[in-house]
Design a protein that fits this description.
The complex is a heterotrimer of chains A (about 675), B (about 130) and C (about 500).
Chain A lengths: L3 H27 L4 H24 L4 E11 L2 E9 L1 H24 L7 H23 L3 H19 L6 H35 L10 H9 L6 H21 L8 H4 L5 H10 L1 H11 L1 H6 L2 H22 L5 H20 L5 H35 L17 H15 L5 H16 L5 H30 L18 H21 L5 H14 L13 H24 L3 H8 L1 H8 L4 H40 L10 H26 L1
Antiparallel strand pairs in A: 1-2
Helix pairs in contact in A: 1-2, 1-4, 2-3, 2-4, 3-4, 3-10, 3-15, 3-19, 4-5, 5-6, 6-8, 8-11, 10-15, 11-14, 11-15, 13-14, 13-18, 14-15, 14-17, 14-18, 15-16, 15-17, 15-19, 15-20, 16-18, 16-19, 17-18, 17-19, 17-21, 18-21, 22-23
Chain B lengths: L9 H24 L6 H4 L18 H26 L14 H24 L7
Chain C lengths: L2 H11 L1 H16 L6 H20 L26 H21 L8 H20 L3 H22 L3 H32 L4 H9 L8 H17 L8 H8 L2 H22 L19 H20 L4 H27 L7 H26 L15 H4 L1 H15 L5 H15 L2 H34 L12 H19 L2 H11 L2
């Protein structure tokens, strides 16, 4: 129907148009219908994404289309180039499919916003812009186009998290999200620039641009094993890129923005935490895998360690949170940590496919069940009058039957209950980690594997803790909910049911038996990126591992059942006996405070010192200004003392430069 | 390159001597010949017509400065015109300006004069010459 | 060649500037007869248009030759119309038109003619300083910018703060001019000529790295003198005080015009312009990349750190202009290194590109503030902008574009500009690589930190409820100025290539 050129450009452009239309005409003309452009555009993009998948599956090489030359001078030639390969197609489908349902859900969820028409339009414009940025990010064929989408995602997250700007906490959270991720982006930009400059230096006669994926990856995968200089170079680039990924994907040490991002409307949380923003970091590392692979193995170990540590820490924090959305937020951080762990396992040629498939597969299934969980939590919130503290409601399974079932599906998938989608993808990750423990840094990977296994148990526990606290026990409804608590309207429950089906069934269909996923990634992406050096992954199941991880998952579920349904007094007692640990976890291990002390503190201090110096200078200047005043009986001060000081400063600066030059010359 | 010879500057020295001599002679003659009646007004320090009583740092009307600046502008104008008039049309060995450039330089001088004229008219229109 | 013809040719090159200056004289005179700001603003737009027409005239039949270098490669020619001059003259004319639009309703009726006349002289000065190939012409051109600026600073606002600002600017500017002249006199003493081409050729012929000490002293003096114009630390002190005290139009003027002239002069005098027939050589600027390294690092850090503390919008923008000067100085630091390795984006090229981008976004931001201000309720602090997105959605959107561009978001001019500057710093060849990678790191951290204070403004506009109603009636000239700046900001971000290549042709490689 469409040729690939139109197809690729339409996928981001449709949401962009929707955003523009909603932004400009929404408040005046569309009013209560402001959701239509966004939903239609994202859904159409989704259809187009499936068409792209079809084309990719039949293509031999990645489909690359250059639309126009973005910047060109000398040997710098960067085009607005989009590409479609296995990875892009899968990401596109995840983003647009989940995004469409989230947008539909938002129509019901934001219904009370429809009274304020400007806000309603603003919301859907921002969502459409978000989808645009994210699709641009995954479609870009060079790092700069990707970076454009990347920053766009940051901007949209700022707009969406701060949507309810009347709440000061929302405005603060939005700013935190933007600035923390930007800190990582600074590193990423340096990495991109360094990559370009390095390529230019290594290939003086070239006209190719080192930040084009093909060029960079061909170079990276042709690095000889004994070429340590180049390996170190790629190590530097990889670490700088990792900065960006860590910021965007909320990993240690830059994860602090994500839990606060709960301040946005719940569909936004679903969007940010499931389909789009946080997955960008995983996508970046996966996309740059040839570079990470060419770097010394310690770099990949860093990726894996960051991932495993984040997964464990976030899971521990999630254990004790009372806010349902916060539990889910920490679980997102934890699950993204899993994906990083998987990516970090790609230490040998044989492991690349295994590791990347595991990570992207988990990204895919996670998008479904996490979006489902967030939307279900949103449905709960909607019914409870925006109360989200799990201590204030319980026993909702009779009150909200549909939401109860969909939440259960999501929770079971997240917990890794056997045969559900989360089980398969988590299992692949653990398998990859286990496999990696036979190669470089094997002992460390073994530790990471065990911590992953423990995290799996913790995940099951806290997920079902939230589930049991919310839906079991005696019926308790907060007064904010009003008199007639009711199930959400179909516009909200239908997306829940669709996503629930995906969360339960998709995993088993696409990978473990059919291997569609791995096949798509291998033949339509990795082979070309690595120049054919990667080896196919072994098919088959590691039965002991599956049994073990099932045991951990079911154990966690069972423990949660024991503690929160069977004998609800137990958690209190336990918390009492382990007071210190409980408090530590409840206070999120004081990481926010540590950050305050170590980063915000010095910055304030520095600013304060500058102010103090300013004050000192002012005082000195005042004194200088007073001196003529004292002598004022004879000479009236005709000039402001400040100007004299300014001139003095200029002269001092000049003198310093002059003496430096003279000294250098003398040497 | 000619070597420096102080002797070539003798007219300046003659001029200096003449000026100094004139000043000294005039002052001496005034003292010797003129009558000396010491009235209080004459005993006051001379301050260009201002009353030398009171604080020295009194405010002067800004008009003084405007007039002074306008005077200076025309003073400087003459300062530019005089050497040009004296030098531009010398002939032969003494010529400082190539003959072809006389025309352009003349135009430049006209532009210069026109600029000053515009400034003058501007000041006039702005009421600089109205004392109140 | 016949001297008359040659002189006439030289004057022809400066015809747009002559037209501007003559018209300015007429405006001064005629302004005493008619006092109407709309009338005079319209007239000065027309005059700028006429100047642009005259500038374009020679290229009507004959399109610009890609290797259009020095139009007459004559050593004694005091002004040249090379591509750098051409580009900066176009920039000056467009900038002048934006400033006219911007100040349309900001000047009172009785001072409109004088204000616009001064503006025209300033624009002529920028054009002339871009063309100057002689120290004396350059100096005169810079004074043609400075002196009307003093007048404008006094004209527009006469409260105590504004007078203090004007006096401060005047005194320090005169002081810096003294430094500049001192440097020029050393250069003249060293080479016996004031012609920049001849002078640089003289310096080039000396043994590499063995420039006499006097030349380096002159270099430092020139950099110090021009450093005042581009607000490089430690010559930046006046900026926040003066911007805060003076009117928004004057602040915009000060933030943009002296930077263009200052960087143009630096590029020329330091021998960073290598169009076609002049290969990069060893002359003044090549001797002191470390000087610019330090200046750049200091300037951007001080600007960004001090901006963090401010609440006053004009002070924030003042420190932001200091910080952006720091980014541009990176280009001067890397220019000599990059010239010898055929880099993709040369230092001077990136500077020229950034100048234009910076001008669009900064003047735009000031124009937004002026557009929203009324004499009774001026927009002074960040709080005053609270909730603007609801009362003026379009203007708020464009302000957001300017601020995101200042932050350096992709698809804005600010991103492209920073990208080229940082790219240059990372591209320096290995002998110096570590040094310049450090500079790029400092710059990247600065850019990240800078986001903080710009974002505060955006947050105030979008995420806060208005503290007071802003009910300024819409005026089309102000809106037009903002729209032009926004269009340039976005266009340079989305498609920077034309300007980038023009900049390359301008400074050569």
């Amino acid at each position: 129907m469409f040729d690939i050129r139109t197809l690729l450009v339409l996928i981001p452009v449709l949401p962009l148009l929707a955003a523009a239309v909603t932004g400009f005409f929404g408040p005046r003309f569309l009013r209560k219908n402001s959701h239509w452009p966004c939903i239609v555009a994202v859904a159409s993009s989704c259809v187009l994404a499936f068409l792209v998948l079809g084309k990719v599956a039949h293509a031999e090489a990645p489909l690359i289309e250059r639309y126009y030359t973005w910047m060109q001078t000398g040997s710098l030639d960067i085009g607005l180039t989009l590409r479609a390969d296995g990875l892009t197609a899968l990401m596109l489908i995840t983003i647009t499919f989940v995004g469409s349902w989230i947008a539909i859900f938002a129509v019901g969820y934001m219904s009370h916003e429809r009274e304020h028409e400007a806000g309603y339009a603003r919301f859907f414009a921002a969502v459409a812009l978000f989808v645009f940025s994210m699709t641009l990010l995954v479609l870009g064929d060079n790092y700069l186009v990707m970076f454009a989408g990347w920053e766009g995602v940051g901007l949209c997250s700022y707009l969406l998290i701060g949507f309810w700007f009347q709440k000061p906490s929302a405005a603060a959270a939005a700013r935190k999200a933007f600035l923390v991720t930007r800190l990582g982006d600074a590193g990423m930009m340096l990495g991109i620039l360094l990559l370009w400059a390095g390529y230019q230096y290594a290939h003086p006669q070239t006209t190719a641009s080192g930040i084009n994926f093909e060029t960079a990856f061909t170079w990276a995968s042709s690095t000889l094993p004994d070429d340590t200089d180049t390996q170190l170079f790629f190590g530097t680039v990889a670490l700088l890129l990792l900065c960006g990924a860590v910021g965007k994907s909320a990993q240690i040490p830059l994860y602090v923005w994500l839990p606060d991002a709960m301040e946005g409307p719940t569909p936004v949380s679903a969007l940010i935490h499931a389909a789009t923003m946080v997955t960008a970091g995983v996508y970046l590392v996966a996309r740059s895998m040839p570079i990470f692979h060419a770097a010394p193995p310690a770099v990949l170990l860093t990726v894996a360690s960051i991932g495993a540590a984040t997964a464990l820490l976030a899971a521990l924090i999630a254990l004790t949170q009372h806010d349902l959305k916060r539990v889910l937020a920490y679980s997102t951080i934890s699950q993204i940590g899993y994906m990083f762990l998987a990516l970090g396992c790609a230490t040998t040629d044989g492991l690349v496919l295994l590791a990347v498939t595991a990570a992207i597969f988990h990204l895919f299934t996670h998008a479904f069940f996490k979006a489902l969980l967030f939307l279900s939590a949103g449905s709960v919130m909607h019914a409870m009058g925006n109360v989200i503290d799990m201590r204030r409601f319980s026993g909702l399974r009779t009150v909200l039957p549909t939401t109860h079932w969909t939440f259960l599906c999501g929770a079971a998938a997240l917990a890794g209950v056997p045969l559900l989608s989360g089980f398969w993808s988590k299992d692949e990750i653990l398998g990859a980690a286990l496999e990696a423990s036979h190669h470089a840094y094997g002992n460390v990977y073994m530790v990471l594997f065990i911590s992953g296994l423990v995290t799996a148990g913790l995940t099951a526990f806290y997920t079902f803790r939230a589930y049991f606290l919310t839906f079991w026990g005696e019926v308790k409804v907060p007064p904010e909910a009003g008199h007639h608590v009711h199930e959400s309207p179909p516009v909200m429950t239908v997306p829940l049911m669709v996503l629930a089906v995906g969360a339960v069934g998709l995993g088993i269909v696409v990978q473990p038996f059919t291997h569609w996923f791995g096949h798509l990634l291998e033949h339509h992406w990795l082979n070309s990126s690595f120049g054919g050096t990667i080896q196919p992954a072994p098919h088959g199941f590691n039965i002991p591992l599956m049994a073990g991880s099932s045991l951990f998952a079911l154990g966690g579920v069972g423990l949660a059942w024991l503690m929160y349904v069977r004998s609800p007094a137990l958690p209190g007692k336990l918390a009492g006996t382990m007071q210190g640990l409980y408090q530590l976890s409840l206070n999120k291990f004081h990481v926010d405070e540590l950050y305050y002390v170590f980063f915000v503190g010095p910055a304030t201090l520095f600013a304060g010192i500058c102010q103090a110096i300013d004050f000192l200078v002012d005082s000195v200047v005042d004194l200088v200004g007073q001196l003529p005043g004292l002598l004022g009986k004879l000479v009236r001060p005709i000039q402001n003392g400040l100007v004299q000081f300014y001139a003095l400063a200029m002269i001092l600066g000049l003198t310093v430069f002059l003496s430096a030059l003279v000294l250098r010359m003398a040497k | 390159m000619q070597s420096f010879d102080l002797a070539t500057y003798y007219p300046i020295f003659i001029f200096l001597v003449f000026v100094l001599g004139f000043a000294v002679t005039a002052m001496a003659m005034a003292h010797l010949v003129g009558p000396a009646r010491k009235t209080p007004v004459k005993q006051m320090p001379y301050e260009s017509g201002m009353d030398p009583v009171g604080d020295a740092r009194q405010h002067f009307d800004v008009k003084f400065y405007l007039i002074a600046i306008l005077f200076l502008v025309f003073d400087v104008e003459l300062l530019f015109l005089y050497p040009w008039a004296a030098m531009a049309y010398r002939e032969g060995n003494e010529a400082l300006l190539p003959a072809e450039l006389r025309g352009p330089v003349f135009v430049v001088v006209l532009v210069f004069l026109a600029t000053l004229a515009i400034g003058y008219v501007y000041a006039w229109r702005k009421g600089v010459f109205q004392w109140r | 060649m016949n001297p008359t013809v040659e002189l006439a040719n030289v004057y022809l090159l400066a015809l747009p500037e002559i037209v501007l200056t003559l018209s300015a004289c007429l405006l001064f005179l005629a302004g005493t007869f008619r006092q109407n700001r709309h009338f005079w603003a319209m007239k000065s737009l027309g005059i700028l248009g006429a100047a642009a027409f005259i500038l374009a005239l020679p290229f009507y039949r004959q399109p610009v030759d890609p290797l259009f270098a020095l139009q007459a490669p004559n050593m004694v020619q005091p002004i040249v119309l090379d591509r750098l001059a051409l580009l900066l003259k176009i920039v000056a004319l467009i900038g002048g038109a934006v400033l006219v639009l911007f100040s349309w309703n900001e000047v009172s009726d009785d001072l409109a003619a004088e204000y616009h006349a001064c503006l025209l002289v300033i624009i002529a000065g920028v054009g002339l300083s871009a063309m100057a190939n002689d120290l004396i012409i350059l100096f005169l051109a810079l004074e043609m910018i400075s002196i009307p600026t003093y007048v404008i600073l006094y004209l527009q606002k006469t409260d105590l703060g504004a007078r203090e600002a004007a006096a401060k600017y005047f005194l320090l500017s005169v002081f810096s001019t003294g430094l500049l002249l001192f440097g020029f006199s050393y250069l003249y003493g060293l080479c016996g000529t004031t012609n920049i081409t001849a002078l640089l050729d003289g310096l080039r012929s000396t043994d590499a790295g063995r420039l006499p000490l006097i030349a380096l002293v002159a270099l430092v003096m020139v950099v110090a003198g021009l450093g005042f114009k581009i607000t490089a630390v430690p010559f930046h002190f006046y900026a926040p005080d003066v911007y805060q005290g003076t009117s928004l139009t004057s602040a915009a003027l000060l933030a943009f015009v002296p930077k263009v002239a200052g960087f143009a002069a630096l590029l020329r005098v330091l021998d960073f312009v290598w169009p076609g027939n002049r290969p990069p050589g060893v002359a003044l600027g090549t001797q002191a990349p470390i000087l610019f390294w330090i200046l750049a690092a200091m300037t951007m850090t001080v600007g960004n750190v001090l901006a963090l503390l401010q609440d006053n919008l004009k002070r924030i923008l003042a420190y932001s202009s200091v910080a952006h000067a720091g980014y541009m100085l990176i280009g001067l630091a890397t220019a000599p290194e990059l010239a010898h390795q055929a880099a993709a984006v040369g230092g001077g090229q990136a500077v020229v590109f950034y100048l234009v981008s910076y001008g669009a976004m900064t003047v735009g931001a000031f124009a937004v503030l002026a557009y929203l201000s009324t004499p009774q309720a001026p927009i002074e602090t960040v709080d005053d902008l609270a909730g603007v997105s609801r009362s003026h959605p379009a203007v708020a959107l464009m302000m957001a574009i300017f601020l995101f561009s200042l932050i350096g978001m992709p698809l804005t001019a600010g991103f492209a500009g920073k990208f080229f500057l940082f790219l240059g710093a990372l591209e320096v060849r290995p002998e110096q690589a570590v040094l310049f990678r450090c500079l790029a790191l400092i710059a990247a951290l600065n850019a990240a930190a800078g986001a903080w204070y710009y974002l505060r403004i955006i947050a105030a506009m979008y995420l806060r409820t208005p503290l007071r109603a802003i009910d300024k009636p819409a005026t089309w000239p102000g809106l037009a100025a903002i729209a032009v700046c926004a269009a340039i900001t976005v266009a340079l971000g989305v498609y920077p290539t034309p300007l980038l290549q023009a900049a390359k042709a301008a400074v050569g490689q």
